[in-house]
Amino acid sequence: MQQFIRFSSDQLGLERILRLFQSIAQIILGVPFLAITATAWINSLPSTVAYFSSLATSEKPIVAAGPLKVADTLLLLGDLKGKLALARRTVRLFWFLGSFQAAQQLYSNGGGLDVWLDVASRSFNGMYLILETVTMPDVVGTPHLRLFGPALSATLNLEAQRFWLLALICASASSCLKLLATYGQAAVPETGDGFGAKVGEKKKAGPAEDKAKKEAAGVALAKERSAKRRALLRKLTADVLDMAAPGVVVGWMDVDAGAVGMAMFVTTLLTGYDVWKKFA
C-alpha cells in the first residue's frame, strides 16, 4: 500500500495511472463487443448511477433515466477519454524543460551513434511537449482565451504528434544499438589469465581463490547485463508499440482504434513498471 501511495503521488506515476484508464476507454471504443458489454454492465447498475451517467448525454435535466444505448456509451466514453487526455496534458505541462535539459547534457557528454540518437529523441520529445503546452489554452476551450484558433491549433497539435513519432523512432534505434552492444560485450572476456597484468607480474592469490573470484565476478557481470537487456527490451517494445498512436494521427500508419488502445495499454504497463520499481 505504501508503494502505491508513493507511486500515485508522483507525477510520473499519476500520469501512468491516467493513461491506463484512457487506454481502457480507447479499447472499449474500438471494440464493438466491449462497447455492448459495457452498456449492459452500466444498465445493470443501480438506477442512481445510471441516472448520473445519462446526464453526460443530455443537455436538459432528466426526470427518470432509461436504459443506455450503445451510442450513449460511446459518447460517454469518448468524453471521458478526452477529459483524461486533458488531465495528462496538465500533468505534463512543463515536462519539455526536462527533455531539453537531458538532450543538452547528452550533447555535452558526447559519445557514439546511440548517444546522438538519444539527443535527437530527447530534442524531438521536447518539441512535442512544448507544442502541447503552448496549445493548452486552445485545448481547454475557454472562450476568448484561445491563442491560435481552431485551425492553427489543430495544425500545431498534428506537428506535435509528428515530433513524438520521430522521438520514438530515434529512441527505438538507440535501444537497438545499446542492445546489440550488450551482446558484443559478452563476447569479450573482461577477466582471465594475464588480463590487465603487467609483464612479469606474479599472482599473489592461489589458483583456487583466483578461480572463485573470477566465477563470482562473471556471475555478477552476467546478472547485470541480463538486467540491462531486459530493461532495454522493455523500452524498445514500449517505444515501438507507442508509434501506433502518433502514426495514425499523422497518417503514416493504418491501425484501428482498438489496436491503438491495446498498444497504449501494454506500453503503459511496461513504462509504468519502471516507475513502480523506484518506490519499492
Q: What key phrases describe this protein's structure?
A:
globular, single chain, mainly alpha
Question: Can I get a quick summary?
Answer:
The protein is mostly helical and 280 residues long. It has helices spanning 2-9, 11-30, 32-43, 47-55, 70-91, 95-109, 113-134, 136-140, 149-186, 207-242, 244-250, 257-278. Mean pLDDT is 85; it is low at 193-202.
Descriptive overview:
- Helix content is 77%, strand content 0%.
- The model is unreliable at 193-202 (pLDDT under 50).
- The chain folds into two domains: 13-45 and 68-92; 94-187 and 221-279, no CATH class.
- The protein is mainly α.
- The protein is built from twelve helices and no strands.
What is the overall shape?
A: globular
Q: What fraction of the residues are assigned to beta strands by DSSP?
A: under 5%
Number of separate structural domains: 2
Number of beta-strand segments: 0
Rg estimate, integer Å: 25 Å
Topology order in helix (H) and strand (E) letters: HHHHHHHHHHHH
SS-based structural class? mainly alpha
GO cellular component, one term: peroxisomal membrane
Keywords: Membrane, Peroxisome, Peroxisome biogenesis, Transmembrane, Transmembrane helix
InterPro entries: PEX11
Organism: Pyricularia oryzae (strain Y34)
